[in-house]
Known about the structure:
The protein is α+β, with helices and mostly antiparallel strands. Helices cover about 45% and strands about 20% of the residues. It contains six helices and four strands. A hairpin with a 2-residue loop joins strand 3 (about 100-105) and strand 4 (about 110-115). It is elongated, with a radius of gyration of 28 Å. The model has no long low-confidence stretch (mean pLDDT about 80).
Amino acid sequence: MAMELIGKRLQSMSVAQAARELKVSRQAIYGFKTGEFCPSLSVIQRACEAWNLEFTVAGMKITASSFKPEQPRIEALREAVPFQPTLFDLWSELHNKRMTVVRAVKVDGAVEMTLRIAIPA
């Protein structure tokens, strides 16, 4: 699998070059070569990207693009997330309902508001 492909690739290049391309120490490369330890998922990802490696795990083909998160479609997000008004939208809506913001102060990451409500007599 991944370790075998990385091991084959390490045989054909210098330790310094492999360490530079995988962004690990030379000691890590020696550890991979001797089987002392296995590369982490992030090292496998960098190997797939740098060396264009592909391998199969449980019938699933793994390539460099397998590690990249899928970009959700904007339209799907708009449909899934209900409209959330901004504070400015709410203030204008309050004004339309005969409410006035008298004071707005930021307190511990929140906004404390004093409202004046005009109620017709």
